[in-house]
Each structure stands twice: as structure tokens, then as C-alpha cells.
Design a protein that fits this description.
Chain lengths: 223, 261
């Protein structure tokens, strides 16, 4: 067996393990926290309260208007200079959560707005308050609408977590970098990292498809 | 069918509403007695929907008063408190032109949502009552399907059942058959007529004059945000007093009329 093939095989497990113990948990926790944040920000943005809606708008604008890598550096390398020291992993979780919060907020807001006004009114006419209608009627329908775009957000996030290697988080890409630096086989190792990301994303796309089919059951087909 | 001797259930007076510069309701006075069926007719844009929505607390009038026997008694000169709005909604339930069923819930879930979530009726009881109501309108076997699987007429009957399940004192119908194919109109009107005969109090916006003639106690003709004429259906349809009423009825009865100008 050639040296390259041997190196490929030897590095496969460390890289995949970096994905399973670094990339995926990081993406999942940031996504979960980010979604909660996004829902709050979306509701603030939609609220009649000027302050709440301006604050939400500013947050979304900053997150979407600045590079993720810069956000990550501000938190990990910037904050210590004002006395706030956070470890790599929590830094990454915070940065990615804030980032998802900004992007997913717009998705959720659009999804809420896409639910016809008549659904709110049907809630009101059966005696519900605004928050009850939101929780029981509007959000479940908005959730259906936001699954495809939020799945895409998640898949992007999985890939974006490679940036965490820049703040020394042990994840898929950092494992590949370490082996590459050691073996000097940059092309091989970086292509291998790309391959593993790709397989991860293929699996996630399939899961997305299955989820969408499941959620489709109350929607008329062929319309 | 006359219930004129009974007490008023609802008294609305001087209702005003503007959207921007457009004054949609000028000064609407309306009394509905218990068991009475009031039909509201009038050209498109005359404010019929806005009247119903105001009665149901979906729209807040700029002025005037809505008083239900036994409360609430709301004066819209003052800002409406959340509690008052909920109390107003509690008294009536609306059947919409576009049914507005909840697409993510089955027929049964649509019907029990209000009783269980809002009125805190025990679920088993709410289900039993919902099934009885669905049975009445011939839809019991549809209890577990989603709204998109129903025809327009069936959807509208579920919409009616959803309103009935709340046991409101007043039913509000906003052109309940306008969005339906002609052959489906009859089933829905029959259900509404039966409810009228049973003694439900209702305000119905409709262009179905045969329904108005057969089921209503009073017909109100609205135009330009005012009630132009009100009378018993017989009088309204055979001997309308106002020129605008005559023109409107003429246009409905003879859609192919000659242009007059
Ligand atoms: N939310 C709204 N904003 C602005 N204009 C409205 C709104 N609702 C109704 N209108 C206007 O008010 C007028 C009366 O409407 P509506 O009560 O729906 O009449 P109808 O039911 O008799 O057709 C129409 O000119 C309509 O365009
Ligand atoms: Mg209307």
C-alpha cells in the first residue's frame, strides 16, 4: 500500500472522531441555543414595542453585517483584554449561538408573517389571547414553513464550525490540520477533511428530507 | 319565528370606525334580541364585515358602545382593556368567509381547541360534545382528517361546528357561502337555518336572499357605513323604502340589468 493510502486510513478515524466529538456537538448546542435566541429576537422584532423591535433589529444587523470569524475572535481573543477570559469551547458555543440567533431570527420572523392573518383571528374568535394563538396556532404552522431554511442554516453551521479551529477548539478540521502539519501532506489531509464534511452534510440533507416529508402530512399535495 | 318580545342580547350604538382617512362605519345602531336572526345585506365595501368584527372584538371601534345583556358593557371612547376585549370575544363566535380552519389540526382538534384550551372543558367531555355536533352536520366520520381533505362545504360546516362548540351567546356569519361552489351552498345554508330554528341568536352577512327570507327576523341594509333601512324580510324584499335599497336588491335579483346611465 502506498504511503498516501496508509496515511489516509490512519487519519480517517481521528478526523471523523473530531467531527463526532467536536463539530457535531458544537453545531448542535449552538443551534439549540441559537434557535431559542432567534425566537426571542423574532418576537421582539415583531412586537409593537419600539424599543424591543429596534434592539432586535440592531442585533440582527450587527450579526449579519460582520464576519463570523471576526465575531469569534472578538469573543476569544478580544474579551480577555477587558478581563473576560473564556475557554475555547464555550467561546465557540457563544459565538456560533449568537450568529445562529441573528440569521434564524429573520427566518422565524418571515415564517410567522407567512401564516395568514385569518389564523390569528380564528384564534381570537375562539377566545384565545395573542400569546395563546401564537403558541398553539401560529408557531406550529410557522415551524413547518421554517424547517427547510433552518435546516440549511444548520448545515451551514456545521461547515462554519471549522472556523473554531482558529480558536483552538478540537474539532474535525483542527484534527486534519494537526496531522497535516505533522506529515506535511497538506493536499491529502485537507481534501480528506473536505470529504468528511461532505459526507456529514449529505447525511444531514437526507435527514432534512425525511423531516420535511413527515411535516407535510397536513398540507395538500399537488397544490 | 318572532322573538321580538324577548330581551335584547346585544345593543350596539353609535359605532364608528375609520381606517386612516376612510370612515368605514359612521354611526351604527344595532339591537339583537335573544333567539333573533338578523341578516345584514349591502354592497361590497359598505362595512358589513367591519360591523361583525367589531361585535367580535376583532376590530376596535373608534367610538360608540357595545353592550351585552349580563356584560360586558364597553364604551369605545375609552381605551379597551385586554380583559374587556376577551370578555367581548367570549360572547360571540365568528364563522369566516374563508373558514380559517387550523390546517395543522384534524377536524376534531379544530373543534375542541377552544373548549379545551380556552374554556378548560375536560377533554373527554369536549370530544363527546364535538362528536355530537359533527354528527349533526353529517361529518362525524371526518373527525380525524385534516381540513385540506374536505370539500369547501364540509370545511365551512366544520367552521360552524367550531363556533358552536364554544356555546357562544351570539353567532356571527360573514358571507359563509360566498367562497363556495354553487352546489355546496345549500348544505351550509341548511345547517344555519336549522340553528336559527333551534333558537340560536345570530347576525348573518349574506347575499342569499332566499335564506334571509326564510330564516331572518330582521334585515338590515347597509350602504356607505350606515344602516340605510331595517325591516322584516317580507317588507324589505317586497316593499323597500329607500332608493338605494331598491337599487341594490334590483341588482342582486337581476344581475344582467341594463345600465341606467
Ligand atoms: N384593515 C383595514 N384597513 C384598511 N381598510 C379596511 C380594512 N378593513 C376594511 N377596510 C375598508 O373598509 C371598507 C369596508 O370594509 P368591509 O367592512 O370589509 O365591507 P364589506 O364587508 O361590506 O364588504 C372597505 O372600503 C375596506 O376596503
Ligand atoms: Mg365583507
Amino acid at each position: 500500500m502506498s504511503d498516501s493510502a496508509q496515511l489516509f486510513l490512519d487519519s480517517l478515524w481521528p478526523i471523523v472522531r473530531g467531527g463526532l466529538t467536536g463539530t457535531i456537538p458544537l453545531a448542535l448546542s449552538a443551534f439549540a441555543i441559537g434557535l431559542v435566541l432567534a425566537l426571542i429576537v423574532a418576537l421582539m422584532r415583531l412586537s409593537a414595542n419600539r424599543w424591543a423591535s429596534s434592539l432586535a433589529r440592531a442585533y440582527i444587523s450587527v450579526i449579519r453585517g460582520t464576519p463570523l470569524l471576526v465575531q469569534l475572535f472578538v469573543i476569544f481573543y478580544g474579551l480577555p483584554s477587558i478581563g473576560v477570559l473564556i475557554d475555547p469551547w464555550p467561546s465557540a458555543v457563544v459565538a456560533f449561538s449568537l450568529n445562529v440567533g441573528g440569521y434564524a431570527a429573520e427566518v422565524i420572523r418571515a415564517a410567522i408573517l407567512s401564516v395568514p392573518k385569518g389564523q390569528w383571528e380564528a384564534g381570537y374568535t375562539i377566545g384565545m389571547s395573542r400569546s395563546q394563538s401564537l403558541r398553539r396556532l401560529i408557531l406550529p404552522q410557522a415551524a413547518r414553513v421554517s424547517v427547510p431554511p433552518l435546516s440549511n442554516t444548520f448545515i451551514s453551521l456545521v461547515k462554519d464550525t471549522s472556523l473554531a479551529s482558529m480558536i483552538l477548539v478540537t474539532e474535525l478540521f483542527r484534527e486534519a490540520q494537526k496531522i497535516a502539519a505533522f506529515s506535511q501532506e497538506f493536499m491529502l489531509l485537507y481534501l480528506q477533511a473536505a470529504l468528511v464534511y461532505w459526507v456529514f452534510c449529505l447525511v444531514l440533507s437526507m435527514a432534512q428530507g425525511a423531516l420535511e416529508t413527515r411535516l407535510d402530512r397536513y398540507v395538500a399535495h399537488g397544490h | 319565528m318572532s322573538h321580538m318580545d324577548t330581551d335584547p342580547l346585544l345593543r350596539a350604538s353609535g359605532l364608528r370606525k375609520s381606517f386612516g382617512d376612510l370612515e368605514v362605519l359612521h354611526s351604527i345602531d344595532l339591537t339583537v334580541r335573544k333567539g333573533e336572526v338578523v341578516v345584514l345585506i349591502g354592497p361590497s365595501g359598505s362595512g358589513k364585515t367591519t360591523v361583525l368584527r367589531s361585535l367580535n372584538g376583532l376590530e376596535t371601534p373608534d367610538g360608540g358602545r357595545i353592550e351585552f345583556a349580563g356584560g360586558p358593557d364597553l364604551d369605545f371612547a375609552a381605551p379597551l382593556r385586554k380583559r374587556d376585549r376577551l370578555a367581548l370575544r367570549d360572547r360571540s363566535a365568528m364563522v369566516f368567509q374563508q373558514h380559517n380552519l387550523f390546517p395543522h389540526k384534524t377536524v376534531l382538534q379544530n373543534v375542541i381547541e377552544g373548549p379545551v384550551q380556552v374554556q378548560k372543558v375536560p377533554k373527554a367531555q369536549a370530544i363527546a360534545e364535538a362528536e355530537a355536533l359533527l354528527d349533526r352536520v353529517g361529518l362525524r366520520e371526518k373527525r380525524d382528517v385534516y381540513p385540506f381533505q374536505l370539500s369547501g362545504g364540509q370545511q365551512q360546516r366544520v367552521g360552524i361546528v367550531r363556533a358552536l362548540a364554544l356555546k357562544p351567546q351570539l353567532l356571527l356569519f360573514d358571507e359563509p357561502t360566498s367562497a363556495l361552489d354553487p352546489e355546496l351552498v345549500g348544505d351550509v345554508l341548511t345547517v344555519i337555518k336549522e340553528l336559527a330554528d333551534e333558537g340560536w341568536t345570530m347576525v348573518v352577512v349574506t347575499h342569499e336572499l332566499s335564506f334571509a327570507r326564510a330564516a331572518s327576523d330582521e334585515v338590515l341594509f347597509m350602504d356607505g357605513g350606515v344602516i340605510v333601512e331595517r325591516s322584516a324580510p317580507q317588507q324589505m324584499f317586497t316593499n323597500p323604502q329607500h332608493r338605494r335599497t331598491r337599487q341594490f336588491l334590483d341588482r342582486i335579483l337581476n344581475p344582467l340589468h341594463e345600465r341606467q346611465d
